[in-house]
């Protein structure tokens, strides 16, 4: 599903964000990406949906050679990947329904299909009855659920969640993690970058721990740090 071979990333200011990263992630895995700020995990995440390009090395995502594709092909890759952000990135003037529908409108999905699919997704993430609410009428957890519904609506093979619980209280954070676990159980590959030690230590998923631009640990049922 995801393969990186000797990937390096050096930014214009000379900072080496990734240094020779090689890793494979199989279809259906749930993987935590952890590490201190500046360790390289955000760059790694952005590489997967082509927000950043490697300086050297090769990246394959869902059959696409990400580092070699042309700009016009990027939307093709992103249709197979759903991205969930820490700050939700919802459009404030649109309702929950409209925010989720927007992801289908940009790829010119027929209106009848949009209505059915959006309602299915909102129901799946526990927001039935909230479709007409705007972001400022929803709690933080509900806004993140809208974000997850938007990420899921194209039926992606991969969900990338970049600190999805970073702005949420502990109880709501667990609700979001359980939702992502359920999505993963149904077959979607989930990659979640997080600083939440409690969640990582208690759920015992695969852990990729970044340090100094490299993968310092790759554990199948790991914890946030070596002690776990």
TrEMBL record:
Gene3D superfamilies, sorted: P-loop containing nucleotide triphosphate hydrolases
Stored Pfam families: ABC_tran
Gene Ontology BP, a term: cell division
Keyword ATP-binding in annotation: yes
GO MF annotation terms: ATP binding; ATP hydrolysis activity; transmembrane transporter activity
Localisation: Cell membrane
PROSITE patterns named among the record's database cross-references: ABC_TRANSPORTER_1, ABC_TRANSPORTER_2
Residue intervals of the ABC transporter domain: 2-227
Recorded superkingdom: Bacteria
Membrane topology: Peripheral membrane protein
Protein keywords: ATP-binding, Cell cycle, Cell division, Cell membrane, Membrane, Nucleotide-binding
A GO cellular component entry from the record: plasma membrane
SUPFAM superfamilies: P-loop containing nucleoside triphosphate hydrolases
Quaternary structure and interacting proteins, as annotated: Homodimer. Forms a membrane-associated complex with FtsX.
Function statement: Part of the ABC transporter FtsEX involved in cellular division.
Homology family: Belongs to the ABC transporter superfamily.
Name used for this protein in its record: Cell division ATP-binding protein FtsE
Species this protein is from: Desulfuribacillus stibiiarsenatis
Upper taxonomic lineage: Bacteria, Bacillati, Bacillota, Desulfuribacillia, Desulfuribacillales
